[in-house]
From TrEMBL:
Subcellular location: Membrane
Protein name listed in UniProt: Regulator of protease activity HflC (Stomatin/prohibitin superfamily)
Organism lineage string: Bacteria, Pseudomonadati, Pseudomonadota, Betaproteobacteria, Burkholderiales
Keyword Protease: yes
Start and end residues of each Band domain: 58-225
GO cellular component, one term: membrane
Record-level GO BP terms: proteolysis
InterPro entries linked to this entry: Band_7, Band_7/SPFH_dom_sf
Pfam family membership, one: Band_7
C-alpha cells in the first residue's frame, strides 16, 4: 500500500540568507579595525572587534547550483536556503547541505510472479530528486535507503498486476508487461510517486530495464511462443491459399476455359492447396492421358 503523508508532516520553509560577500567584507573590516585598536593599545575594544569579525565569518557558507542548506537552531528547523553562491546566516545555525539534483537508482533484477503466477525476472531504472528537503530529512530516517526499498516494493507490486505476455485468458487489448511498455512505465512512475511522497521525493522518470521469464520456465515459454507463431503463420498461409484457389476457380468459370465437374474441381482445389501450403517445393507430375485417367 502506498505511503500516506500525515497531516502534521513537516514541509519545507524558504529561508532568506544574506549576501555572503557583504558579510565577508564586514568581517574583514571588523578584524582590521580590531588589529588597529590593538596597535593603539585599546586592548578590550580590539579583542571585541576581532572576535566579532571571526564570529561574523563563521556564518559564511557556499551553495552550488541545485544545492540547498537546511538550517536548524538547537534542534529546531529554521528553513531551507536554495540561493546559490556565497551566503551568510546566523553563525549558530547548523547548516546541513543537501543536493536536489536528479539521481539514478538502478533496481537490481528481481524474481517475482506475474499476474498469472509465472515466475519472471524484472528490473528498472528510476530517476528521482529531492523536492521537499524538510520532509526528506525530518520525516524519514534515511531518505536514500527509503527510496531504494520503496522502489523495489513498487516494482514487485507492479509485476503482480500485469501478465508477462498476451494469451487466450486475457481480454483483447489488455496491457501486458511485454507489449505495453509505455503503459507499464506510466503505472510504475505513478506508484513510485505515491510511495516517495512521504519523503518529499519526486519521481522524474522510471523505465523497465530487464524483463524475462525465470530460467526454470524460460524454455517452456519459448516453445509456447514458437508454437503460437507457427500457428499464426499457418493460419495466414491457409487463408491466402483459399483466397487464391477461389480466385482461380472463378477466373476459369468466367473465361470458360475448362468445365470441371464437382469431383475434378475438388481434386484441383486439393492439389492447389497442397502446392500453396506445403513447406517444400511441389514436384509436378505430367498427366499423359485425359483429365479422368
Amino acid at each position: 500500500m502506498a505511503a500516506q503523508i500525515r497531516p502534521e508532516a513537516r514541509r519545507e520553509t524558504p529561508f532568506t540568507s544574506v549576501n555572503g560577500y557583504l558579510a565577508a567584507a564586514g568581517g574583514v573590516l571588523l578584524v582590521v579595525a580590531g588589529a588597529l585598536a590593538l596597535r593603539g593599545f585599546l586592548l578590550l575594544p580590539g579583542i571585541l572587534l576581532i572576535a566579532a569579525g571571526v564570529f561574523l565569518a563563521a556564518g559564511l557558507y557556499m551553495l552550488q547550483p541545485n544545492e540547498t542548506a537546511i538550517l536548524t537552531l538547537f534542534g529546531k528547523y529554521v528553513g531551507t536556503d536554495r540561493t546559490e553562491g556565497l551566503r551568510w546566516a546566523f553563525p549558530l545555525y547548523r547548516k546541513r547541505k543537501l543536493t536536489v539534483r536528479a539521481r539514478n537508482l538502478n533496481v537490481a533484477t528481481l524474481k517475482v510472479n506475474d499476474r498469472r503466477g509465472n515466475p519472471i525476472e524484472i528490473g528498472a531504472a528510476v530517476v528521482w530528486r529531492v523536492q521537499d528537503t524538510a520532509q526528506a530529512v525530518f520525516e524519514v530516517d534515511d531518505f536514500e535507503r527509503y527510496v531504494s526499498i520503496q522502489a523495489e516494493a513498487a516494482l514487485r507490486h507492479l509485476a503482480s498486476q500485469y501478465a508477462y505476455d498476451e494469451a487466450d485468458d486475457l481480454a483483447t487489448g489488455e496491457t501486458t508487461l511485454r507489449a505495453g511498455a509505455n503503459e507499464v512505465a506510466l503505472a510504475l512512475r505513478a506508484e513510485l510517486s505515491a510511495r516517495f511522497e512521504a519523503a518529499g521525493v519526486e519521481t522524474v522518470d522510471a523505465k523497465l530495464t530487464h524483463l524475462a521469464y525465470a530460467a526454470e520456465i524460460a524454455q517452456v515459454m519459448l516453445r509456447r511462443q514458437q508454437a503460437e507463431a507457427i500457428i499464426s503463420a499457418r493460419a495466414k498461409i491457409v487463408h491466402g491459399a483459399v483466397t487464391m484457389v477461389d480466385a482461380a476457380l472463378k477466373a476459369l468459370a468466367e473465361r470458360d476455359i475448362v468445365e470441371l465437374d464437382p469431383e475434378r474441381k475438388a481434386a484441383m482445389v486439393s492439389n492447389l492447396l497442397v502446392v500453396l501450403c506445403s513447406d517444400q517445393n511441389a514436384q509436378p507430375i505430367i498427366n499423359a492421358g485425359t483429365l479422368y485417367n
